[in-house]
Amino acid sequence: MLKLCQNCQDILVEEKPGYWVCPSCGSVFAETQNALPTPPGFDENAAAKDSTAMLDMADQSLARGDYDEAFYAYQVYLEKHPSSAEAYWGKVLSHFGIRYETEVGGLRRPTLNRMDSRSILQNADYLKALEYADEKQRAAYEKDAAYIAEVQSRYAKMANAAAMEKSYDVFISYKAQDDATGQATEDSRIASEIYERLSSLGNLNVFYARVTLNEERAGLAYEPFIYAALNTAKVMILVGTKQEYLNSTWVKNEWKRYLQRMQNDTSRHIIPVLKEMSVSDLPADIPVGDARIYEGRKTLLELTDGVLNYTKKGAVADVDEKKAVQLIVENMKQALARKDFKAVNSESEKILMNYDAHNGEAFYYRLLAEYGVDKPVKLKDLKQDWTQSNNYKRVMAYGDNALKTRIESIKKLYDARVEQEKQELYIEAENARRAEEAEKNIEKARELIGQYQYGRALDLLIRSAAYHEDAKGLIDLCNTGLEAMNRIGRRDDFEGYYFGALEQKNNSLYRQYKTVTSANESLKKPGIDSSSAWIGTIMAGLGLAAFMFLIPGGKRYTGVMLVTLGSIIASIGMGRIIPAGVALVTGVLGMGFVWAGGKSLDTALIICFFPAAYLLILGVVNVIRNKNYVKKTAEESALYSQVHDFIQEEWNDLRNTYADVLGEGFLEPLNPQKRKQ
Description:
The chain is α/β, with parallel strands linked by helices and about 675 residues long. The protein folds into five domains: about 1-30, no CATH class; about 40-155, Tetratricopeptide repeat domain (Serine Threonine Protein Phosphatase 5, Tetratricopeptide repeat, Alpha Horseshoe); about 165-310, 3-Layer(aba) Sandwich (Rossmann fold), CATH 3.40.50.10140; about 320-400; about 505-665, no CATH class. The protein contains 27 helices and ten strands. Strands 7-6-8-9-10 form a five-stranded parallel sheet, sandwiched between helices. The protein has a three-stranded antiparallel sheet with strand order 1-2-3, with no helix packed on it. Helix 4 (about 85-95) packs antiparallel against helix 5 (about 125-130).
């Protein structure tokens, strides 16, 4: 395996077992000493089989800025072609990180990307290149070398001036832009946070390209300052989120050169800070002992401790931490007073990031800024539950007793207000629920009132009286309706109610009316219903007289017939069916006895006499009863008129009293005039 000189990167030659000598600078290394190994993935055997391919690979590596790989490839090629001036010149370009850039006008100039304190004109590979170069090559090499030497000299002065002006404690190496998208990388964001954190301590000089080169050294060549920073920095922080970023030209150029300096200076340290990749993904050359996975603030605090330890600067060297924190607290108070909540958060971040990650007062002001209040007492009026805020929880966890007492007193006021609002909301919701229920009850009550169910309606209205403005009027209506219903009872019993009321008002008159009515009913039973009863009775009487006195024996048929027909007519007229049948039978018998003559005539007379006599007596009785019936009917009519007058008077009183409640539609069917009709 090839071994490189840790001073000049030339390939070491094994002088004797366990000892290696650098042919360029003369450095001697023991087996146990560290020398740079062959680049990972470099296949020496494959390269040895095809020298031309190896030279092409070296040129390609150089062109893309992979100087270490190019250096190895040229060296391997030289093992088979030791007189190749081109390969030696390639080693020179790789060693100094030379790339040719085309200037305005088409002139190609070499640019120096890897400074070395030794001049190119003294480099062993350069001297070998001149030795084996032809005349044309020599001229070109000498021209470019002279230009590079001049640049070296100029850069050396700049680097020395920069080193004298400022030596760096920390060098942050990162990939700024993605080559494919041109967008800023996540690495650049993390690097920015690390820079802000470390630079805010006030006692560390941090090399961060975006600020140090673009702002402090704008318009100047970068390499002298990078070189000076790499030479002086005690710590390199290497940020990586992708392997391709760590192996990119500029990033790799930085950490490779820093590793070379670490070989001779054990006080130097490299701290990889990784995200979305593991330690095993790091290039094999990079030590992993100090590697950290980036987790935001936690990692920044750990990183700060590590850097301060390696740089021997202490936590806040030359700065009174207490006074610094107090100054920041005053800044937060002023920012809060002018309602600059962004500034409050920014100032509190300085305390938490740089001095004390558990500073309760910083979290207290962050709490106020989070909810946009410029005075602590305003927290009690917030609608949001600020007691669930992480800032509040950290105040209670890290604040001193005075701060906790202050915030707890505000919380008590807040809790009391919240509880009161809950009660008010409950009452409001309950009232709304009851109002809604009352609205339904009122609607149902109106329906029941329309059906004259005043009792059920009243029960609903009483429950809704406090929640509906119409309830009181409807309750009065129901009470009046119940009074009316109690007076008149059910509609079917209306007339019975009137007679009951009349009996109380005029008991004597009512009893007379009932007596006359009952008597009249009994007189109706035997009463004469038509003139046929009178005609039949007269006929029967005349026939009986003719039979007995006027008509001689042979002509008595006429008498018997008159008696018989008269009896039948009178019986039917008086509603006496049985006497009518008897009259018919006796008439037939009488006719038979008349026809027989002799004593049979007397028999016929006897047979016909009884029906006729019965009917005559009955007719006389009926005449008398009819006279009494007519009299009673007249009395009944007079009494009924009085009763009807009482009923009509009571109806008018009810109508005048309850028509508005019950309505004419309810009372009209009970009108005595209509019932009479």
